[in-house]
Structures
1.
Amino acid sequence: SPPHTMPNMRSWALALGLALALVVVGRMHGGTPAELEQNSAGAGHAKCDAKCSEHKAMVIARMKALRKEIDGDYHAMVHFGDKAGYVPPVRSIKSQVMDGTLLGGGKGSDDAAPPPPPPPPPP
């Protein structure tokens, strides 16, 4: 792949790893990632100033966007073909040869298919 796409792929992989880590940590502590985000956003830590809070909000927004994208990709994969219509089964070649429609000679057409081959002689 071109070198200019590597940082994007690395940042995407890092974000995916971070998202999975949040899910695992949330499961270990008995909460969902959304609950962890709410708890961490609501907790006013003395060491976190305005810049830290702004960075935290940015990371949370980024994670929500990434989670939404992952859910969309999952939905697209799992529900592929749900909107497909009914496709009737194909007629057998033998029946098409017998009625003359295999080579385009349908009912009312002047193009006649060749006659079916004779049956093999008995042994």
Note: The two ends are 65 Å apart (CA to CA).
2.
Amino acid sequence: FFNTKRGKQKKMEDPTNNTSFYNIKKENRNITLTPKEGKHTETLIFMHGLGQSADFWFPKFNNEELNPFFKTSKIILLTAPNVPNALIKDGNVNSWYNIYENNADLWDKIEEKISLEEIDANTKYIHGLLD
């Protein structure tokens, strides 16, 4: 697994290894972690920031020292669609919605500065994961 942001390639931890205290399922570009022992009592759905991925965040959640919820939580690490984004001039990026303009007045007339349609579509996708 590689993080190719800004053209740099870095080998990422393989989420399918067996050294985890989780059962690990990689489906499409998402990773689901469930405790190996017992049932989970809560579910955390994690959405990364612009340009990141489930693979990027996996090592942080698969770390007993960094993750206080590992014994009781099901964790779903999502990866946003890889789409064009106006802030990124040279190609596609993992992004939950297009950002047309990023400045201090982002919240003023926000419907003109981000893609509300993409937010709506991704909201429906995430709700579908809960069903």
Note: The chain is about 20% helix and 25% strand.
3.
Amino acid sequence: LMAVVKLSQSSATAFDILQQRSLMLKVVIFMGGFGTFKRKWAQQLYDIIFNVSFWTCGTVCALNLIYQKTPYHNFPTDALTAYVHFPAWQSWYAWRKYVQTKGCAELLFRAKSSPEREAKL
């Protein structure tokens, strides 16, 4: 709990706290486009690389509907695979903005320091 209190006071995000607990979560968060860097140029480079990779994947999925090469399955399945890139990117964008807000940090702090939770431990 003290780690959460210290991080909450230094404007840590939920992802910052999770990354301290597990190396695997750190890798998943980084590969999922939620990595954060202190230097602005590094953050911009990371964001560009993530978005280019994401939309390259979406484009290849969409082109596979036309060319129907391996790993083509059937039209409905592959159409859904190509389409899912749009709501997935919107969700990523919205969540990425939300976890950087003060409201998210407060929610995390309250959840971690609730008396009910402390009683169960």
Note: The first helix runs from residue 2 to 9.
4.
Amino acid sequence: FRAITLDVTTKLPVRIDTYTLDLDKANEDDTFAKFAFHHEFSQEYGVPDLSPNSALEVSNKIMTNESIAIKYKVNMNAHGKGSEDVIKNGCNARCRRMTACHTTNSVYRDARNCFNWYDIDGFTLLSYIFDFLDGVWVNKK
């Protein structure tokens, strides 16, 4: 799990701590059912703070640096299922692009553009219709 510490005045995040649990060990013996501190986000990815510029810097690192992309994906999985595959297979340019796009886009249509997916399938068409019916909720400047 992640614990996000906010500045009392601004309510902006100042720290993101990640804790992990070895579920296999915990299932074998309850005494191992303890969460352990794993990392703090800004220290783990070498950024000065949690500002939008620093978050973008991490995304750019993911896009261009395979070891950072692997670290991010393994951390995203909390070193659990799927982590071994990422470590074994690496993270090629397509993998890095998709991971970076996920970290910079919260709107499905924008993520698809980031992935360079311009084809329209049934699901995409439905998502566009729902976006239209729901109204514009994200304004780009």
Note: Strands lie at 2-6, 13-20, 36-40.
